[in-house]
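[Discussion] Sanity-checking designs against the backbone

I'm trying to build intuition for which residues belong where. Below is a structure token string of 157 positions. I'd appreciate it if someone posts a full sequence so I can compare it with mine line by line.
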């Protein structure tokens, strides 16, 4: 597990004036660095902005874009919207599960490289089926392309 850099957290708090009204922006900046919200960071933020830990956790758990669980270096979002579904995104998803050692109940790989997320729509229906890796969309995916993508990402890691 990654150690939380309190100096980095302090710089974010300074940026927002330690204003509890800006708690969402503060948490977004923390999550951008760590890819999730570490418990230590949330406790520190709560203390510094003068909020209870339970209120900070309440914000973190209310909004679906926040995660309390560590994620891999590569977050792979597999679209299961209608267009992707009819073009066999389930086969792509299974190939990604197999290639990364993940599954529906274990979304992150043991090596810390991959986290699988199933999403309802990525807004790229004309390119279906699609997989988004971090901020990059991979179009017209097949199980073969999915396996090759995982191998490429492993080599780049």
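Best answer:
Here's mine. Compare freely.
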């Amino acid at each position: 597990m990654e150690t939380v850099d309190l100096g980095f957290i302090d710089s974010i708090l300074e940026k927002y004036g330690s204003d509890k009204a800006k708690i969402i922006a503060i948490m977004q900046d923390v999550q951008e660095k760590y890819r999730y919200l570490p418990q230590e960071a949330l406790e520190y933020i709560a203390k510094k902005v003068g909020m209870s830990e339970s209120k900070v956790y309440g914000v973190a758990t209310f909004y679906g874009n926040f995660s309390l669980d560590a994620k891999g270096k590569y977050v792979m979002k597999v679209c299961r919207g209608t267009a992707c579904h009819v073009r066999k995104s389930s086969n792509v998803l299974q190939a990604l599960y197999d290639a990364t050692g993940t599954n529906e109940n274990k979304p992150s790989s043991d090596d810390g490289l991959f986290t699988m997320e199933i999403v309802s729509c990525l807004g790229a229906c004309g390119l279906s089926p699609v997989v988004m890796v971090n901020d990059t969309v991979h179009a017209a995916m097949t199980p073969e392309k999915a396996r090759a993508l995982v191998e490429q990402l492993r080599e780049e890691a």
